[in-house]
Each structure stands twice: as structure tokens, then as C-alpha cells.
Here is the input.
Amino acid sequence: MEAIRISAARRALGGQFVLSLSRSWVCRSCRGLPVAFRQFSRSQTTSSKPYYVTTPIFYVNAAPHVGHMYSMVLADVLKRWQQLKGKPAILCTGTDEHGMKVQKAAALEDMAPKEFCDANAAKFKALAQKANISYDRFIRTTDADHMQAVEHFWFLLREKGLIYERKHSGWYCVSDECFYPESQIEKRQDPFTGEVFMASMETGNKVEWSEEMNYHFRMTALKAKLLEFYAKNPDWIVPATRMNHVVDWVKNHLEDLSISRPRERLSWGIRVPDDSSQTIYVWVDALINYITQAGFPGWTPGREMEGGWPADVHVIGKDIMRFHCVYWPALLLALDLPLPKQILSHAHWTMDRRKMSKSVGNVVNPTFAMDRWGVDTMRFYMVHDGGISDDADYNNSMISQRYKKHLQGGIGNLTGRIAASKSWGLPEAVGSEGAKFEGLTRFGGLLMPIANKSFQQLFTAHHLEMASVARTVGMRMQKLDLSGALQHLMDNVSRTNHLIDETAPWALVKDSGNPESRELLHRVIFLAAENIRISAILLQPFMPTKAAEVLDALGVSEDKRTIEYAKPYTDFDYGSPIVPIEKGAWSGIFPRLLEG
Ligand code: MSP
Here is the structure.
């Protein structure tokens, strides 16, 4: 067992806090030692680590909007993709409830902060449920285990001598919940009221001057380690271009971080252990949620990774990069804890090219949007059109266009053509043609020659595309290019629609007395069905309900919907819909939009 020594404490610890220190995450052989000499257990465990993906935890000062839903959907698709591959996976989402911003919002509503948080956290939870986010925990920073985790974290930082107290003067921004250095502040004027105020150059949000005693985290001590980490992991942030900004910031602007506020200013938060006159800085509190969920500090020696840490991906918006790409790794490095493996930082949804935000008042309510378009249509739209590098403008007519082209006209139409036609039977096509393909692998399509050369060419091309879909989608998912993966699936669907158009099975039906035409007919239907089956299996993480409806319509059994089956000729038992379809009169999986 490899163990990491915790450096000697620089300050005496308060008795009450030491007593509350959990024993389980301290290396067994060190439990008898004074606290300052105990060691973390960090064995190279052989126990399995689930895939672990997180969303940011959302401020409860306002109701959720589609920007929040976007982070949730991206994380959910990543989790479901792993599950499709047969890997255990965990998704954690939740709410960030402490801090000045929430304290002020509660006061404005004339509510006690906790009561205010309960009401608003419920809205985010309802959003996660409605959007079909398969979260394993909805964490709230007011949860008892989280508050304990934060206290332990603080205690360990202090034990390492990385916390000190000094007077702090600077510009605090309540909206962004952070201090800004003088160099990043400018004068602005409100265009409506004429009020002149000081604001952050980066976000435009108002700042206020404050001078107070507070605790600081010796973040500058981690500068070299941070820079070394970035240099060794150039792909840590997706998109990688955002890394430059982070490196530049650490090189040129890194300072020690103020990590507490006087209680008389900020009472809504976790008290500093042993100094109840101070409240822990909300970002330190919030970031720790990621390890609370993973079991910190109750990690059992040798099994630390079972809770998921280190996270495989933190999904975040680009506006909170500094907190996740500088503060969070610095805090983790300070305690010799492993860093998250990747950060997926997405761009913003805008409305008329302005960032959607509560303060501007240009937000789209995701619940209304899902009621209007359907849950899976919204999930589809967000992943397909949402920005990673560049912002994306939210646009209802684009949603309608995507629906008509890709969903109703694409996968929906294809499923209807194949599974619900009065002119042919899918079970017969899978039965007669499928049996011939059984046992054939990658080049199966090439091994099944038919006399008609032009059909043969079409089938071969179709086969080759179909055989590589799962691999291409998998590679894009691996690169966290979710939109690219979805677009590839849609291209695949539209290619199949073309195959049908070009082979015109309705003409073959008319000549089905002829054995050659009948064979061709069955082969077209079978190859098209294979491609819908494969596409729908791979679409499950993106549109869980609709993909399941497609697979139901094809009659694919529940146990044959995993990635191993996303290859041609791996399932010959489908064809009869799970829920009976009224042929010719089926309204389909993606019905016509009411608007026409
Ligand atoms: N509470 C912090 C996060 C703490 S994580 C340890 C926070 N909360 S937030 O509610 O303001 O934002 C949550 C997420 O929503 C962020 O990733 C943010 O980028 C994202 N979005 C907020 N507005 C957005 C858009 N208009 N578009 C896309 N995402 C947006 O920051």
C-alpha cells in the first residue's frame, strides 16, 4: 500500500474538531499516531472504479434555464454512453446553496435561507427528472455529509500549513461570487438608470469594495505543480484551446486565495472550524461536492476509488473555468488527491446573441420548452446544436427544422417505412435474409453476392458504412465530441433513407412473384432494418425514450440493446414489434408538429 504523508500541522487543532475526524480514510497503520503524522491511504487499488461524471451544482438564487439543462444533458449522455458499453457509471448533479448571492436572494424574498433553498433546489431536481437525467445523487451543499466533507477538507489544508489569516482588501462580486484584482475592474454605466458603478471587465457584473480579515489558501505554493500538470496534460480541457487561457492566468495572475468571509457579512455558509466568526468561501464549499459524492472523507483504505473519484469528466460552462481548472486542482494537489481526468467546458446558449442569464432576463424556461417540443427533441437539439467552442443562439424555428429533418423525416420516417409498411413484412425479411447472414462478420455484406450489380454496389457501400458506425461514434464520444457523434448517427440514418429511395422496394413488391425480386426486396428491408437497429442502439444515450420506441417498433429485445449488438448481423430475433403497430395507420414515433 502506497501511503502519502500528511505534513506536520502548523497550528494546534481544536479538540472538538480532531474528535470529529473520521478514522476510516486514515491509513490503518497510522491511526495510533498524532494527527499531524497520519498518512492518507492511497493504495493502487485493484477494486473497480465506476465512470464518474458531474454537472456543476447550480446556484439556487434563480429558477433553472436551458443553459443549466444543457450541462445536465451533456453529462447524462456521457453517463449513458458508458452504461451502453457495459461500464458502471455515476452521475452527480445538485445545487450550490451557500454564499452571498443566495443569502441576498433569500432576504429579498423575505425567506429564511434554508427555506428558500429548499424551494429552489426542488426546481432543479424537477428539471433533472423531467429531462430524464439519470443522476445517482442530487447533492445539496446543505446536506450534512457535504458540510462534514468541507470541514475535513479545511482541517487538512490547515494541517498542511496552507491556510493563513490576513487582512484582505479588494473588489468582491456577489454575482460571480469572487474577488477581482484591481487590474480587472472598470467603471461602467447602466444604460437605463445612468448609474455609474465598478464592474468586472470579464463578466460586466457589479463589484463592491471590501476590507476585512479572512483566511487565505496558499495557492501560490501550488503554482509550479499546476503548470507542470497542464504541460503534461494538454488535452485535460476540452476544447484544448481553452488551456492557453488557464496557463496564462496561472503564470501571470495567480495569487493566494481568500477562502473565508467574516460572519457578519456572510452568515449563510459553513463555519470555519474553530473560528465561528468566519464563513467558508462558497466556491471552496461548492467544489468539494464532487468528492463528497465520491465518499470523501470516509474512503475505506484500498477501496477509495469505488465511489468514482477521480471524476472522469466535470462538465462545466466556460464561465467557471478558473474555479475548476485552477482553484480546484490547486486544492486537490494541496492534499495529494488525484485530479479529475477531464474537463468538458461548453460554451453558452444565447438569445439574440446575448448570454442567456437571469439577470438579463432573456432566459428560456426548459420545462416549457420540453412541454412544447418533447423531452427527447430538446435533448437532441441541445446536443446537436449546443456550442462547445462557440456560443449557440437558441432558436425555436431551428428546433422545428431539426425535428422535421432528422427526427420526423429521418429516423421516424425510416422506422415507419421499414416496420409499419403494409407492403412487406419485417419478420419475413429478417427471417429469410437474416438467416443467410448469420455468423458473417464485418465483410458479411460483401460475401453475399447477388446477380444485380447495381444493387450489389449499393448494398456493399451500405454495409461498409453500417459496419463502421459504432466505431466512429465511439471515437467521437471518446473525444467528448457529443455533437459530432450525434451528427454521424443522423448522416447514417439519412443514408439509409437514400438506400430505400434508390432501391425502390415498392417496385420490387409488385414483382414479388419473381424469386429474384423477392430476394432483393427482403435484402433491402433487412439491410435497412439492420441500420435502424444499430442507429437506435447508439441513439439511446441521446434520446433514451424515443430510441427505445424505435427498438420496440423493430421488436429488438431488451437484452440486445447494448453496444455489442450495434454491429450488423448480431441479432436475428427481431422483426415483430413489441407493442403492436397498426400497419399503414401508425402515427409514428415522431408525429407531425401541430404548427404544421
Ligand atoms: N454554482 C456555480 C457552480 C459550482 S460547481 C462546483 C455556478 N452556478 S450557475 O447556476 O451560475 O451555473 C451553473 C452552470 O450553468 C455553469 O456551468 C454555467 O456555465 C451554466 N450556464 C449558465 N448560463 C448558461 C448559458 N446561458 N448557457 C449555457 N450554460 C450556462 O456557476
The CA atoms of residues 4 and 40 lie 5 Å apart. Residues 56-59, 67-68, 70-71, 96, 286-287, 289, 316-317, 319-320, 348-349, 355-357 surround 5'-O-[(L-methionyl)-sulphamoyl]adenosine (CB under 6 Å). Residues 1-46 have pLDDT under 50 and may be disordered. The longest helix spans residues 453-478.
